[in-house]
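Need the bound structure for phosphoenolpyruvate, inputs here:
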Amino acid sequence: MKKEHELSGESVVSGWGLGKAFFIGRTVQQQETTAVSISRDDVGNEIMLFNDIRDRAKKDYHKMIKGLGSGNSVDTSILNIYEHILDDPAFIGQVVETVSSRLFDLETSIRFVSNDFVKRFESAGTSYFKERSSDMVEVCEKLVSYLHRDEGRAKTFVGPVVLVILRTFIPTDILAYDRSKIAGVITTSGGKTSHAAILARSYNIPVISGVRGISDHIKPGDEVLVDADKGRVHIRPVSLLVSSYKRQTHREEIYRELKAKWNRPVYTRDGIHIEVMANISLPEDVKEAVENGADGIGLVRTEYLLSNRKEMPSKSNHSGYYDAILNSSKGKHCTIRLMDIGGDKIPQFFEMPAEFNPFMGWRAIRIFLERKEIFETQVSAILKSGAGFDYSIMIPMVTTLQEWVEAKSFIREVATKLGMKMPRCGVLFEVPLAILEMNTFMKEIDFASIGTNDLIQYLSAADRNNSKVNYLYNPVEPAFLRIIRTAIKCANDNGKPLSICGEMAGNPQHTVLLAGLGLRRFSVIPRSIPLIKEILANISFAEAAESISHIDAIESTEDMMQWLKNLNRRHLGNLMDRIPYIETVI
Ligand code: PEP
Ligand code: MG
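Answer from helper R.:
Posting the output first, comments after.
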């Protein structure tokens, strides 16, 4: 067995975990040890799915060939080769055989057979055949990518795994598998507020991003220990190291203690009530939110209703989802966000134009206003399920007042048609133009929420999914904090409730800062609620505000970071001695 080895990367979600390496994202040698198995009943479905994704891949390659046109310099024959592979009877036959006789799932089978082809091509003498191995990898990845955008069901593993992702980390990497078996994730790229990282944080899965040299040092099935507090990946760790990690139960014990304590409202030392709500995606998350003491649901990311689906959700899919969420939220307020389709959340069945820059493209309300029929299904299901519950509707990615007015009048039309009451409606402020003009929205909205995840990326022109530019993606940037302060003041002056539901609100290092800026409603992943409440209970709202009055004098990022450290030490000194990991949570 090869010796222990260590790699490093950037911590994206804190914690540690141990499991066997399971690769996603490129053909790799031997998936035996982490092969995913299926039952005999699933064989037919897997084969049908194989035919389906082969057809889709062929159509996509066709589209690409057409798109290239005749006057281009790109050799389109390469695309014809891909089509050839997809129709190759040997390739098709071997995949079908692997699924039906070895009872491996489709991804494992495609990888298995592709690996076999790659090995054979590589051992061939001619350069022509050697080149075919990279074509095989391309086709294999193309096919697998459809599976990851449309899994159909979550797959499970025999024991804990560490997902090794050789591309940007995406939400389906988590949703496609049984979460309880994912002990950690290492990935070549992905930022702290990418949707995949948010999901991983919700499910307490540590993540390290920007890891280099993965393929040279990790083989499928290797034991991997992910220490995302320190940004280290231990490959084939020695047993002494593993047992030293297993003894570190401290963090979990504190979490359990705080969870038991905070099933009640929180007041700062000077008696100000602060709401700490939960961000959720799936109906089963509500139970966790309630158990963690959520004062309500501050954000339902309804686009997760689209994942694991082959077609646009029907009326009854929608209703089932909202009924399940509202019924289990125990009468607490629930803010349902209309589907934020686009950006990195593209359902495979939805016809999206090819976009160079999807995060700046056709997304959320922009789709809503053009494809009202899709949103009519969603809005009417929410209105019907919401009858008798305390809920509101929030719209993402609003840029102009005009968009908002049009969207709101559409919701009113739907409500009138159904004879239902118009719900409270609010804006998710995450586009710079909108937040800078928040004042003009005030008379038109019932509430506001700030989506710091997108807002930071748009203000700093730094992609939230790209670990390479993470150093620019910083919530503690002086100009950013001044914008947040103005927005909170604007909502408070107008008597409109405002929350922050971006990841910034769930980071305990930002709690004093945000309270000082006047924030009274936090919306965070369920697991973060007890710690955020504990911090709020230990501070004085007035004293935090007093400390924040100094931020205008701070000009540089470095000075602001240092100032924040001192601020936390000053307000939370004793608590940080008791809970030292406050300083390392990401
Ligand atoms: C945000 O942008 O901060 C937000 C809450 O929305 P999402 O992370 O789903 O884009
Ligand atoms: Mg957003």
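Comments: The domain at 5-29+159-248 is CATH 3.50.30.10 (Glucose Oxidase; domain 1). The mean pLDDT is 89.
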